[in-house]
Structure formats: C-alpha cells, structure tokens
Amino acid sequence: MSAQNICPRFEKATELLGKRWVALIVYDLMSGPRRFGEIDADLANLSGKMLAERLKELETEGIVKRDVYPETPVRIEYSLTEKGKALEPILGEITKWSSEWIELN
After folding, report:
1. What is the pLDDT of residue 105?
2. CA 73 → CA 48, 70, 79, distances in Å?
3. Three-state secondary structure readout of 33-87
4. Peptide bond into 73 cis (omega under 30)
5. Does the domain at residues 3-101 carry the CATH identifier 1.10.10.10?
6. In this predicted model, what pLDDT tens digit does every residue of 47-98 receive, in sequence order?
7. pLDDT in tens, 28-42
8. Domain positions in the chain
9. Dihedral of CA 90/18/36/79: which sign?
10. Angstrom distance (rounded) from CA 87 to CA 76
C-alpha cells in the first residue's frame, strides 16, 4: 500500500495513538474511572505536566471525559467515553501481539 492510498482518518488515528503515553493512558483508564494521582502513580515514568497535556488532548478528541465533583476538596476523575472504550479491542490485540513477539532485555 502506498502512502497516497492511506486513508486520512487512519493516518490521524495512528498519529494520535502513536503519541508517547497516549495508548498507556487509555489502557490504564480501561479499568474504570481514575483520579489524576492514580494515573500518575501507575505511569511512574511520566511527568505530571505531560500527563496533564495528554489528558487534555484526549479530552479534546472525545476519548477521555473529565468529571468534576463539587466536594471538599474537589474530586476530579477521568474516564473513557464510548469512543475511548471502542479502543479496547485494538489495545487488547496489541497486548496479545506484544506478549508473543516482543522480548524484554
């Protein structure tokens, strides 16, 4: 398949999912709603600034939803939208593929 035959939507999707940390953030949110600190703890090598930036991008793309609860202190949770949940089979296949083919040194 030549570069000219690649669908622009496919190109945009791979560009988004190929950004560093995006797939891992989405994968982490597949277990359910999470607070910023929980995601940050799960992805220890990710800076808080980068996590905030990626969550904002994913929210803009309609993949992640940010819910603010008016409590004291304010509670903010991130979860996947239906669009985000639709990525589960794709990331599941990547998980299976990586288990079979990727070796860690």
Report:
1. 81
2. 19, 8, 19
3. CEEHHHHHHHCCCCCHHHHHHHHHHHHHCCCEEEEEECCCCCEEEEEECHHHHCC
4. yes
5. yes
6. 999 999 999 999 999 999 999 999 999 999 999 999 999 999 999 999 999 9
7. 999 999 999 999 999
8. 3-101
9. negative
10. 23
Contact in structure between 21 and 54 (CB atoms under 8 Å): yes
The candidate with the shortest Cα–Cα distance to 65, out of 50, 82, 80, is 80
Residue whose structure tokens are 């939208």: 81
Length of the chain (residues): 105
